[in-house]
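Narrative of activities, Objective 1.

The group set out to show that a structural description can be obtained from nothing but a protein's sequence at a throughput compatible with the screening campaign. Below is one input-output pair from the validation batch, recorded exactly as produced.
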Amino acid sequence: MNKEIIHTLQAPQAIGTYSQAIKVDNTVYLSGQIPLVPETMEIIEGDIRAQIHQVFCNLRAVAQAARGELSDIVKLNVYLTDLSHFPIVNEVMGEYFSVPYPARAAIGVAALPKGSEVEMDAIMHMLPQEYPAC
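Output recorded for this entry:
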């Protein structure tokens, strides 16, 4: 098994014993992202919509560090402390994804790290890199 650690300064640094993502062959497992601003490591100010946008920005940064894009995500898990925010997740998600959408789960939880209202993790699958013949 070829296991590569993915790391970028463009996303929040891991606040525990985990990696931002792990790539195994053509699959990337992205760790949960909460709405931390990478430069300050503080939750973004604003409402749940701002938090959701920040989470997608953080996921995008990790995906790009793995040489992928959000469009390569095949499975997305969304964790919310208030499931009434789910319609906002759908609305904001439409700004970052298009058909075919990834498979998704939405889970209500009692609490998230640092008082966040939302967290997301993902699985990304990419086609093997093809390089032109010289």
